[in-house]
């Protein structure tokens, strides 16, 4: 499992220009089962994506399709982690 920490490196006006395309990219990845959760940081300096892709290099190839990445608007920090405890509602995150 991975946390993708996105940090904007462009002005918000430029980010907003590509936001609809970024949301379309997110929707496609949700449909493919690659993303579990996503959202904006507060304050709005970027976003977070929770991904269940198994292999980091596969996830990096997916990230390269993000319009924010293509337009060089953000930095991406990909952090791998293995959940060892969850709430009852998130038990599906646990791997056997």
Question: TL;DR of this structure?
Answer:
This protein is of the alpha+beta class and 96 residues long. The chain contains 4 helices and 4 strands.
Features:
alpha+beta; Alpha-Beta Plaits; four-stranded antiparallel sheet; 4 strands
- Count of extended strands: 4
- CATH fold-level label: Alpha-Beta Plaits
Compute the CA-based radius of gyration: 14 Å
| The CATH homology group name | Dimeric alpha+beta barrel
Q: Low-confidence stretches at least 5 residues in length (pLDDT < 50)?
A: none
Biggest sheet descriptor: 4 strands, antiparallel
By CATH reckoning, the class would read: Alpha Beta
Give the N-to-C terminal Cα separation: 13 Å
Overall tally of domains: 1
Order of helices and strands: EHHEEHHE
The whole-number mean of residue pLDDT values reads 95
- Which second-level CATH architecture applies? 2-Layer Sandwich
Shape: globular
Strand order of the largest sheet: 2-3-1-4
Q: What is the percentage of strand-forming residues?
A: 25-35%
Fraction of residues in helices? 25-40%
Total helical segments? 4
Structural class: alpha+beta
Task: Write structural notes for this entry.
This protein is an alpha+beta fold. The protein has one domain (2-82): 2-Layer Sandwich (Alpha-Beta Plaits). Helix content is 32%, strand content 27%. It is built from four helices and four strands; from the N terminus they run βααββααβ. It has helices at 12-17, 19-31, 56-63, 67-70, and strands spanning 2-8, 35-40, 46-51, 74-80. Strands 2-3-1-4 form a four-stranded antiparallel sheet, covered by helices on one side. It is globular, with a radius of gyration of 14 Å. The mean pLDDT is 95.
């Amino acid at each position: 499992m991975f946390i993708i920490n996105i940090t904007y490196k462009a002005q918000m006006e430029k980010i907003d220009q590509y936001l609809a395309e970024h949301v379309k990219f997110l929707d496609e990845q949700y449909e493919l089962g690659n993303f579990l959760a996503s959202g904006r940081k507060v304050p709005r300096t970027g976003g977070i994506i929770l991904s269940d892709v198994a292999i980091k290099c596969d996830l990096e190839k997916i990230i390269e399709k993000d319009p924010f990445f293509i337009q060089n608007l953000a930095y991406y920090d990909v952090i791998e982690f293995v959940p060892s405890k969850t709430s009852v509602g998130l038990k599906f995150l646990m791997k056997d």
